[in-house]
């Protein structure tokens, strides 16, 4: 295993990179102008957070790789984002459900990181918490609004939840990187956040008149990089194409 | 950009956009108080399904460059406005009351700032 | 420009003496630099023209998101991705401000949108050209936004209050757009051989379409004369085009790029550049729907609108339920 702190920073940065990229795919084609603008704000926040996390990852690694190098010159097996983040946008409902499921975890985790023993980690978390608090407010409102809205919107949101719920569990699986972070006082055990997450989810889903799937099965392999979904590779071919095609160029 | 997966609801709701139902969100007027303690100022309008979303949309649309610290929204249909024909009776009476403006009074320079 | 082919409904410009008292008061207010506000009396032609012009302008912003949006997922660095996304987001904002300005004239945004989607209303010809390499992000910012600014800056003084105020906001936000485009061009023009080729290629492809943005010569047009009398058009197309060429040629030289016009040369006598007219046949073809990307652009807008319907309806239905529940509780 490489330096667990490097792994940890890549996990945080790859989550925001991959999800930010997904959200940015909506730019110009959202259901209404106001949503278009709001989604772009979310994507911009996530890209900004990526620069901080991957920048820190590069520093920790100490091999001269900066955030761009890490974002644009690693292949699928080196990415450490959770599988949820790389799931395709689907319809607007699927996008907002993915956002809600992620934001709920993201905010709890970042809040815990604010008291990290690592000064830079705590600083990035503090900046991010302000942004993600708003992301969660917005995605929560949308999930409730569309879950409770019309028959069609309700059906679509239930479908989105069913489709994405199997990717929730991965965010709460502890592994040796997490253990090392707990040991160093840098980050909490993900599993310690599960109860709070579930309580929050239940409240929101009830208001949204949506039903949480009974099966608790969890896909995994994203945060360890062991087995991503096929979607990530296609995203990278687009995202990294210029850097890969013209490696000697600066932009 | 990559496009969202194609709709599984092809022939139901997401079909041609003729005017079957009125689905336009109401129009809201947005007022923002900036950093410097000035009053809320009208900055523009937007559409939103309700007041809560209007405030959120206003935050996303009208404060992208740190323009504000406080947002008011009011549904446009609830704004009562003076009519242009009344302009004379409403505003002209104050035209000749120049003594309301500080420059009306000549204060000698020796007195200092006032 | 963003509203290129606005046909005035007026019959040529009336003199003040030919006008009825209300219209005369209206025109005198405009002549004196005053603003017309939504509830003020205005001639029907003024209202109709403005709706079309502001609507076209708004549509151009919205459709204009697409050619640049085309590169957001391929931007070469995180910073470039963020900048481009922020810029395209601004365009959505500008479309929104303009639709709101149009709404003060008695149309709804949905009315205007439907007319865009059915092809009844137009948007600027420029957005029917494809963006093929990353250098196009530079060229679009530098040339297309540069051309747009020529028109938008004077429109801040247009006679219709809500339109003028929207333009003030837009101009303030737009100030970074052209610069970010030129910044990309500088990187490309001073980069590798491949980057330089991309930069020149982008200039080659966007030069004439940018000149077309100002619309055909209108110096003898009665329509333009009426719009100028109403101060909803501030300069002739030719004036703005000349100003654009004069400003842009030295910028191209600085980049070491060649403007694709063999007749381009400085004219000592006039103090302006002489340049070749764009191919106006191509321009009218693009307006008719035969540009390289007309089909894709309208398809993309229609798809977004159709697939977004359930979302707009869903959130509206939820708001209504909430309202009903609140009233029941009171």
UniProtKB/TrEMBL annotation, chain B:
<feature type="compositionally biased region" description="Basic and acidic residues">
    <location>
        <begin position="8"/>
        <end position="21"/>
    </location>
</feature>
<keyword id="KW-0560">Oxidoreductase</keyword>
<dbReference type="InterPro" id="IPR009359">
    <property type="entry name" value="PaaB"/>
</dbReference>
<dbReference type="InterPro" id="IPR038693">
    <property type="entry name" value="PaaB_sf"/>
</dbReference>
<dbReference type="GO" id="GO:0097266">
    <property type="term" value="F:phenylacetyl-CoA 1,2-epoxidase activity"/>
</dbReference>
<protein>
    <submittedName>
        <fullName>1,2-phenylacetyl-CoA epoxidase subunit B</fullName>
        <ecNumber>1.14.13.149</ecNumber>
    </submittedName>
</protein>
<dbReference type="Pfam" id="PF06243">
    <property type="entry name" value="PaaB"/>
</dbReference>
<feature type="region of interest" description="Disordered">
    <location>
        <begin position="1"/>
        <end position="21"/>
    </location>
</feature>
UniProtKB/TrEMBL annotation, chain C:
<dbReference type="Pfam" id="PF05138">
    <property type="entry name" value="PaaA_PaaC"/>
</dbReference>
<dbReference type="InterPro" id="IPR007814">
    <property type="entry name" value="PaaA_PaaC"/>
</dbReference>
<keyword id="KW-0560">Oxidoreductase</keyword>
<dbReference type="InterPro" id="IPR009078">
    <property type="entry name" value="Ferritin-like_SF"/>
</dbReference>
<dbReference type="InterPro" id="IPR052703">
    <property type="entry name" value="Aromatic_CoA_ox/epox"/>
</dbReference>
<protein>
    <submittedName>
        <fullName>1,2-phenylacetyl-CoA epoxidase subunit A</fullName>
        <ecNumber>1.14.13.149</ecNumber>
    </submittedName>
</protein>
<dbReference type="InterPro" id="IPR011881">
    <property type="entry name" value="PaaA"/>
</dbReference>
<dbReference type="GO" id="GO:0010124">
    <property type="term" value="P:phenylacetate catabolic process"/>
</dbReference>
<dbReference type="GO" id="GO:0005829">
    <property type="term" value="C:cytosol"/>
</dbReference>
<dbReference type="GO" id="GO:0097266">
    <property type="term" value="F:phenylacetyl-CoA 1,2-epoxidase activity"/>
</dbReference>
<dbReference type="InterPro" id="IPR012347">
    <property type="entry name" value="Ferritin-like"/>
</dbReference>
């Amino acid at each position: 295993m490489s330096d667990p702190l490097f792994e940890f920073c890549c996990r945080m940065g790859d989550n925001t990179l991959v999800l930010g990229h997904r959200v940015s795919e909506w730019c110009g084609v959202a259901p209404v102008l106001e949503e278009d603008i709001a989604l772009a704000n979310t994507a911009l926040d996530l890209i900004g957070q990526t620069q901080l996390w991957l920048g820190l990852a590069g520093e920790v690694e100490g091999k001269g790789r900066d955030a761009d190098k890490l974002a644009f010159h690693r292949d699928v097996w080196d990415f450490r984002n959770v599988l949820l983040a790389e799931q395709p946008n689907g319809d607007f409902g699927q996008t907002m459900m993915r956002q809600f499921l992620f934001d709920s975890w993201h905010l709890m985790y970042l809040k815990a990181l604010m008291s990290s023993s690592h000064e830079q980690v705590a600083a990035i978390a503090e900046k991010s918490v302000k942004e993600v608090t708003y992301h969660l407010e917005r995605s929560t409102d949308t999930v409730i609004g569309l879950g409770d809205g019309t028959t069609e919107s309700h059906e679509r949101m239930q479908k989105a939840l069913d489709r994405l719920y199997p990717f929730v569990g991965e965010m709460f699986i502890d592994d040796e990187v997490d253990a090392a972070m707990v040991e160093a006082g840098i980050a909490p055990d993900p599993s310690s956040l599960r109860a709070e997450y579930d309580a929050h989810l239940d409240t929101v889903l009830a208001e949204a008149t949506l039903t949480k799937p009974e099966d608790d099965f969890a896909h995994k392999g994203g945060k360890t990089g062991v087995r991503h979904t096929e979607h990530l590779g296609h995203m990278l071919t687009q995202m990294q194409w210029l850097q890969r095609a013209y490696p000697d160029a600066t932009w | 950009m990559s496009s969202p997966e194609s709709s599984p609801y092809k022939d139901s709701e997401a079909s041609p956009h003729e005017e079957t139902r009125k689905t336009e969100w109401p129009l809201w007027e947005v007022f923002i108080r900036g950093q410097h303690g000035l009053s809320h100022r009208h900055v523009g309008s937007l559409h939103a399904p309700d007041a809560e979303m209007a405030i959120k949309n206003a935050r996303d649309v009208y404060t992208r460059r740190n323009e504000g610290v406080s947002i008011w929204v009011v549904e446009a249909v609830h704004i009562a406005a003076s009519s242009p024909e009344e302009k004379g009776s409403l505003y002209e009476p104050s035209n000749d009351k120049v003594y309301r403006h500080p420059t009306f009074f000549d204060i000698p320079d020796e007195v200092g700032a006032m | 420009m963003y509203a290129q082919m606005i046909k005035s409904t007026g019959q040529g410009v009336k003199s003040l003496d030919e006008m009825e008292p209300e219209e005369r008061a209206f025109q005198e207010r405009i002549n004196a630099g005053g603003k017309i506000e939504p509830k003020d009396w205005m001639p029907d032609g003024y209202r109709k023209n403005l709706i079309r012009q502001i609507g076209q302008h708004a549509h151009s912003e919205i459709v204009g998101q697409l050619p640049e949006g085309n590169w957001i997922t391929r931007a070469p660095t995180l910073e470039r991705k963020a900048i481009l996304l922020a810029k395209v987001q601004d365009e959505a904002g500008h479309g929104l401000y303009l639709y709101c300005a149009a709404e003060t004239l008695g149309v709804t945004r949905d009315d205007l949108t439907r007319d865009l989607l059915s092809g009844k209303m137009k948007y600027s010809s420029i957005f029917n050209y494809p963006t093929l390499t990353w250098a196009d992000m530079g060229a679009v910012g530098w040339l297309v936004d540069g051309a747009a600014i020529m028109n938008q800056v004077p429109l801040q003084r247009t006679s219709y209050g809500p339109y003028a105020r929207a333009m003030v906001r837009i101009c303030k936000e737009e100030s970074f757009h052209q610069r970010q485009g030129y910044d990309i061009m500088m990187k490309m023009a001073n980069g590798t051989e491949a980057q330089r080729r991309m930069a020149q290629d982008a200039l080659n492809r966007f030069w004439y379409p940018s000149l077309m943005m100002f619309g055909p010569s209108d110096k003898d047009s009665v329509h333009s004369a009426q719009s100028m009398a109403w101060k909803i058009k501030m300069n002739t197309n030719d004036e703005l085009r000349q100003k654009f060429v004069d400003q842009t040629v030295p910028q191209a030289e600085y980049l070491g790029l060649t403007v694709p016009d063999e007749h381009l040369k400085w004219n000592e006598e006039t103090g302006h550049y002489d340049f070749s007219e764009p191919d106006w046949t191509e321009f009218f073809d693009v307006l008719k729907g035969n540009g390289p990307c007309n089909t894709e652009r309208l398809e993309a807008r229609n798809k977004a609108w159709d697939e977004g319907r359930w979302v707009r309806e869903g959130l509206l239905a939820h708001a209504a339920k909430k309202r009903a529940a609140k009233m029941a509780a009171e």
